[in-house]
Design goal:
This protein is of the alpha/beta class. It has 11 helices and 14 strands. It has helices at 15-20, 31-46, 64-75, 89-100, 118-127, 148-157, 223-231, 241-257, 259-280, 307-316, 343-357; strands at residues 4-5, 55-61, 82-86, 105-109, 132-136, 138-139, 144-145, 162-165, 182-188, 199-205, 296-300, 319-320, 322-323, 332-336. The strands form 4 sheets. A 7-stranded mixed sheet has the order 2-10-9-8-5-3-4, with helices on both faces. A hairpin with an 8-residue loop joins strand 13 and strand 14 (332-336). The longest helix is centred in the C-terminal third of the chain and has 22 residues, at 259-280. The structure holds pyridoxal-5'-phosphate.
Length: 359
Amino acid sequence: MKTILLNPGPVTLSNRVRQALLRPDLCHREAEFAELQDTVRTNLVDVYQLSNGDWAAVLLTGSGTAAVEAMLTSVVPNDGHLLIIENGVYGERMTKMAGVHRIPHTSLHHEWGQAIDLVALEKMLGQNSFSHVALVHHETTTGRLNDLESVAGLCKQANVPLLVDGVSSFGAESLKFDEWNIAACAATANKCLHGVPGISFVIARRDQLESANRQPRTVYLDLVHYLQQQDAGSTPFTQSVQCLYALDEALHELNDEGGQPARQKRYWRHMKIIREGMIRNGITALLDESECSCVLQAYNLPKNITYSELHDHLKACGFIIYAGQGDFAKNIFRVSAMGDITDEDMEKFVESVEKITGK
Ligand SMILES: *Cc1c(COP(=O)(O)O)cnc(C)c1O
């Protein structure tokens, strides 16, 4: 039986992407690697039709967290001041990173699941001079799609560019890089792009990595170093060649499907089948649909069923769901729409839930 991953990455792979892992052995110092790297970098910038002159994709071997940490440490200048918006695990993780790297920062904290307080944000922007505002686009903790457009509007007025954790939205949700004054966006191969874990990347405005007033804060995650080398067809350190093969194929597959808008549409179709199915089974959603991403949504656990009972039952039926984090661990479960899955799979998933809720 095929196992369907409904956790937020790694995803159920298509055969096409899985087969790409078997392409020939390749040294990362050979011309063929440079060509592969160039193609992937160009296709990543093309996902949102960005200009290759102004924007660059920088590839890293590491998970999504590596890309976020590289973005924060490489883009914020030494005399900069970062405002970090928190409303879940991943926003709070950025504050941890800023602390470890001694990046001057202030956090605008919200309880997990809360919407961003735009009044408080406007006030903070008025009282301080920030070099960048960092926030998570889709807060995977709760499935909330943060209102980037409104945040961007306020930040633009204050002339502060955005650093976006787009790890669980890039490739599926709409991202208006130029209009929203995004300086950089961190993402990964193995969520909405349907590649395998191991490669992550940052899409950055080139001018944001060319500031003279910066001293590297890390050796491995210094995006400026990567950018120089990758522009010259090289790479500072060994890249995960096989993961890059898979990402290359996954990007072709995304393109064949109709690009980001088509993927967003497909995810919404999956999400609607699940949401209607859950409601039929008496299971309520954590957030209103209008606040949710198309990528993942969170549901309140039904009374009298623990997370592990639900998880184990669904696993036996061929579906992997995802637990809540922290205080949410006892109360919610999460279901994602990513990966090579179909409407039919979603309907089977709903039927499998029905078997345990007894409706
Ligand atoms: C998955 C995720 C990350 C990074 O997770 P990794 O396990 O390092 O890949 C960061 N931010 C968000 C919003 C995520 O969903």
